[in-house]
Amino acid sequence: MKAHFNKFIVLLGLVPVFTIGCSRQVKEDNPFAYETVIYTNRGEQINKNPTIDVSLKDGQEVSILPDEWMDLKDNFSDYKNAENYRIEGVENTTPKSVDITWTSESGAQYYLIFLSLNKDMTNTQSIFRDVQNVTLKDLFAGSHYYYQIHAHYSDKTIISRRFDFKTVDFFRLINIDGVQNGRDLGNKKTVDGTKRIKQGLVYRTAYLNPATEQGKIQATLGYGIKTDLDLREPGPTSSPLGGSVNYVNNGVGSYGSPYYVSSSSGINAEDYKPAMRENLKLFTDLNNYPIVFHCAVGRDRTGTLAVMLELLCGVDIEQVKQDYIVYVFTSICNAESVSVMAPNLENLINYLKTYGGNSDYYLGAEQYCLDIGLTSSDINAIRNNLLEDVVL
Length: 392
Fold this sequence. Notes:
Blueprint: E1 17-22, E2 35-39, E3 44-47, E4 53-54, E5 60-62, H1 67-73, E6 98-103, E7 110-116, E8 122-129, E9 133-136, E10 144-152, E11 156-159, E12 163-167, E13 183-184, E14 195-197, E15 202-205, H2 213-222, E16 227-230, E17 246-248, H3 273-281, E18 291-294, H4 301-312, H5 317-325, H6 338-353, H7 361-371, H8 376-386, E19 387-389
Parallel strand pairs: 5-12, 15-18, 16-17, 16-18
Antiparallel strand pairs: 1-8, 2-3, 2-11, 4-6, 6-9, 7-8, 7-10, 10-11, 10-12, 13-15, 14-19
């Protein structure tokens, strides 16, 4: 299954977005290396003097994150350095968009921009524009994008060569209006670096109740969310995102789902193990995706489930820690310092590392899941659903 290619990747107000199979190709050994002119009545020809030039091209790397996130990326030798970027009460989780401008011959009636994650320009998104710029939103992290511009005139269409750019290989934030602490679980890589969690399939946030009408549209139509996994205590019976989203709450007791290590409410508490089992089982069925999971602030119960999923998938332990500690950028839960919160994470991962007499995070996490009632088939299904090969 391919990750959900976000429909809101090019959300531009009321600008229509179309999806087609592929863009027009010139019959050459490298059909994307040339600019092509297609005349209304005279066939097509290669343009030896290209007329379309762009601002973003030739493998340029762009950030899709706030500057502070990029600063932290450069200072992540110790995940606890995140404390240097914590400003209590400040929300700093708005993803950056990417702007592309271009020049072309005058007189164009309109432009179509074709965008793809594939070098052969298959499975494209197409964007209509009547001006020479476009804003791309909700791009995947650590990804290589390819694009072409079609300039349409009364007597011809000029097709640019293929241009490309890369997004920075780090976190992917998401924007559901009204909802805080939103990000994609994807782009976390395994220890050997050969696989990563797919993007566009699993999201983690704070509680969804504040979602605005725009936010509900972004969540359901933009990110394609099908399942709302609520880790809070039982009570609600439907998703704030609307009736098209399946609402799941496996919670028990005062806290709903387990968090950290605690005899009363942790993953080691007998009363809370069934909730963890059923939460994880949700990820075994492809029909449930894309899934958003959350508690109240999206840090503790949400962070605990994220750790379980990441360890089952073999994610590098440093990236597991990083995914937890970036709570410092969201106002709903950054009142507590890293020195207060980090021990909770360390206790959790060390508990799993040594679980069942193991001395390995991944073996311990797998044994824990087997002991609470998951099967080997369940675990393999989670891995198969979430992991993809890293394309170099």
